[in-house]
Amino acid sequence: MRGTFLEIRPRALTDNARRARALANGARVFAMVKANGYGHGLGLAARAFANAVDGLGVAVIEEAQALRHLGLAHPVLVAEGFFDADELALASRLHAEVVVHSPWQVDLLAARPAPLGVWLKVNTGMNRLGMAPDLARAQAARLRAIPGVRLLGVMSHFACADAEDDTFTDHQLAIADTLAKELNVPLSAANSAALIRYPEARARRVRPGIMLYGSSPFPWRSAADLQLAVTQRFSARLIAINPIQAGDTVGYGATWRADAPGRIGVVAVGYGDGYPRHAPSGTPVAVNGHRTRLVGRVSMDMITVDLTGLDARVGDAVELWGDTVAVDEVAAACGTISYELFCQVTGRPVRVIAE
Ligand SMILES: *Cc1c(COP(=O)(O)O)cnc(C)c1O
Question: How do residues 218-261 score in pLDDT, each as one tens digit?
């Protein structure tokens, strides 16, 4: 057996959801499980969170449908709402709450009224989805006139809640809060970063994602420091160990050159498994609990690591991320974020569900 594993830890997911709930200070907690539960498995993540949260959040209606097929009757928020009239009808049948971010969605609802809970998305500076406050106000009035439609709240999304400067977030929050008060409905704005950092942004409903998966939203604070549990461990085995001489190069493109004699370990994982191809030489890995580094380019089925001075044998497990090497460290080395690493693990590694 090749021994390339993605171990998922339901108990850690539950622990992190409880941590989010404790931080939420009474706000309703909707756990984001979009994109296959940030790569952990939709059903597995949703079930792990189920008893610790008030609802679940997804991006698209198919994900809400999948949750219902799994037997989860929780309130479900669909963050991108419906894309057409069929999806609108489906959302209504699934009892999903949908986000309405554009007037064309209100047009569709007005043309095909259906019983539906709606969150009105206001653009407060992200300039992605959402309507400017004046437009949102006008659309709220239209929504309230449609039979069956319930305006559940105002929603906004922060652009910079993970940045050190508060100015942008304060500004966004003020706009969203004003509109929610005017319309006399609850506000939902906080993602993980805001939930942790901006108590005033917790409002009536929070939408944590990444923190539930044991990763820190902040570049300057580790997940361990935030008391978040590790929810997945990606590992693979050493399949060869070879001596190398000073001046030898390793891998495609001969991008890494040994400056002294040493030992190179070949590990059975590559970008075909979802290990990032752009991980540079120096990216941390751990062998038998000892940290070392990737050397040379990532191939489709293999990577090469520096074993010089380490006690390691063929068959030993190498941790790519998990307990010894935080996923956030690997993400930083690769110039990306843990979200992307979680989402891009392919179907090839064997999933193992921890006790
Ligand atoms: C994904 C998502 C979140 C969660 O963000 P994190 O940074 O993962 O906490 C919150 N709100 C919306 C609308 C989202 O799409």
Answer: 999 999 999 999 999 999 999 999 999 999 999 999 999 999 99
pTM (two decimals): 0.96
Structural contact between residues 67 and 42, judged by C-beta atoms closer than 8 angstroms: yes
Angle between helices 85-93 and 61-69 (to 10 degrees): 30
**Claim to verify: residue 289 and residue 181 sit in the same structural domain:** no
Contact 64, 97 (CB under 8 A): no
Q: Which of 34, 121, 271, 275 does the annotation list as catalytic?
A: 34
Q: Provide the 3-class DSSP secondary structure of residue 163.
A: coil
34 a catalytic residue: yes
- Set 121, 181, 252, 271: catalytic member: 252
Q: Which domain holds residue 253?
A: 232-353
What are the distances in angstroms from CA 68 to CA 65, 75, 85, 90, 224?
5, 10, 20, 12, 33
Tell me the C-alpha distance between 103 and 27, whole Å.
Answer: 29
CATH number, domain containing residue 300: 2.40.37.10
On whether both 198 and 49 belong to a single domain, the answer is yes
User: Does the annotation count 181 as an active-site position?
Assistant: no
| Residue 155 beta carbon below 6 angstroms from any ligand 1 atom | no
